Amino acid sequence: MDYKIYKESLRDKVQEQLGEDVSVYYTEMVKNNNVKKEALALQTKGENTTPMIYVDSLLEAYACTGNMEESKNTVLEIYKGRNHVLADWNSFSWEQVKPYIRIRLVRMEGNEEYLKDRPYKKVLDLAMIFVVLLNEKEGEMAAQVSWTQMEAWGIDIEELYLTAIENFRKEEFIITNMTSLFPAELAEELEMGIDMYIFSTKKRIQGARAILRVDMLKTFADKKGCNLFILPSSVHEVLLICEEKYMCVAGLKAIVSSVNGDSDVIAAEEVLSDSVYYYDREKEEIRIAGENV
Predict the structure, then answer these.
(1) Cβ within 8 Å of residue 27, ≥6 positions away
(2) How many CB atoms lie within 10 A of CB 212?
(3) pLDDT tops 80 at residue 274
(4) Looking at the whole model, is its pTM more than 0.70?
């Protein structure tokens, strides 16, 4: 089915099902790395929450099944679940919303449009942005904090930052050996002589912020007795590699850039950075690998 026809048919079916109290329309969303995506929006009269469903994910499922009813039912299920999120967070006071403030990391370069309406702090060559966690059970559903919202709360960026960091320190992050994720026989086949670890949240969703847990990096590096190279696998996780004499920063950067440029491996909006980072045990600090110190 033609994309335009699919969109119109889906919208009409959803609108018919939900009735006149719900406005069903398409809107373009600017995502991380300036990726633009079309979303189906469902705005109910008298409600602040507007569920948005990206059309590409629906179309991908439809391409496999050819079942328009399945697409419609997926949208309706998401709409029904809207009450399980922090629906009225826009009307919350600062004291009410503080426990739900979280941080995310995105790249600075190429994200000028994405960042222009959002408060952020520069970290290395990354931007630390701030979100309100709406529903942790459903994959850390979150809404991004804007300058307008921050002004409504009557706070400055420093208070927003300190609150986010305080909450961040309470989060749980884990370091997992890469080979432990595979069956023993497959792990043996994949053994490349490189001790590689995944550093992220338990759910490995938006977990690249783990790179800011310098305390955990120190403990891990001390245990291993080495400095660490940190590869930004995606916005969801980073990879830790013990430094070896034969390792070349340029070679590691080439690997990261190659992966980031392959849309079959990582979606454009999930790319974090082309840089490689370095944890220095002696100085107990992170820097961009290859920079003069």
Answers:
(1) 38, 39, 41, 52
(2) 20
(3) yes
(4) yes
